[in-house]
Amino acid sequence: MEYVMVFLIGIFATTVGTLAGGGGFISFPAMLILGMPVHSAIGANKVSNTISSFSSFFHLYKKKEISLKECFWIIPVSLGGGLSGGYIASKISGEHMYIIAIILLIFAFITSFKGKGSFTGENRLKMNKFSVPGLYGIGIYDGLFGPGQGTLMFYLFCYLKISYIQAVGLVRLATFSSCFGAAISYIATGKIMWPLTVCLLLGSLTGAQIGVRIAEKLKPRYVKPVLRVVTVALIIQMVVDRLY
């Protein structure tokens, strides 16, 4: 039953994450509630997101919604950020990581209310003083913890006046890069619980394909209110579970 739950969590979280970011708001706390250690829960998310995010990016690439020539530089920038964050996280104890996780989750939730753009811009992504440090910093955050990473990227691309469907593809490529770097760190330090991680991976692959197809027709404003309600419920659950 636990494996089925993790599979379903992967579907739902990645569908939401593909549409508006913040899928980690759902998958990470839910896996903690199921009893997975903090580092193992983060590592499972990194491994599953590496594969699922690339699958949704590749779907948009095949449909020519995004050009690899335009965005290939995202890979080393986000990869470097993910490796840096994953290394930092591996040096923190499970007890401290749990506390930091709750703090970062609340912080990421608050940031989800910032940025009111409509993603109607038509600019192409370019390397500049905002895009490079922005993506690297978010990559570190993704490697260190993760939930809210996609949402923060959406706001960055909105600020850069990138269209919504292109932003979806760019977020998924950046997520693949930073999660790949972080996943290497977690695998190397032996933090991965493979049976549950594989279940989450299979669910995430399914959710990625569902989400990217909905994204071609749906705007993020329809997803964010639901995401915020779920996030509040999970934060409360984490705090209550920790206290009692």
UniProtKB/TrEMBL annotation:
Subcellular localization(s) per the UniProt record: Cell membrane; Membrane
The name this protein goes by in its record: Probable membrane transporter protein
A GO term from the CC aspect: plasma membrane
Membrane disposition: Multi-pass membrane protein
Family as reported in the entry's similarity comment: Belongs to the 4-toluene sulfonate uptake permease (TSUP) (TC 2.A.102) family.
Keywords, alphabetical: Cell membrane, Membrane, Transmembrane, Transmembrane helix
Transmembrane segments: 6-34, 71-90, 96-113, 134-157, 163-185, 192-210
A Pfam family assignment: TauE
Keyword Transmembrane helix on entry: yes
Upper lineage: Bacteria, Bacillati, Bacillota, Bacilli, Bacillales
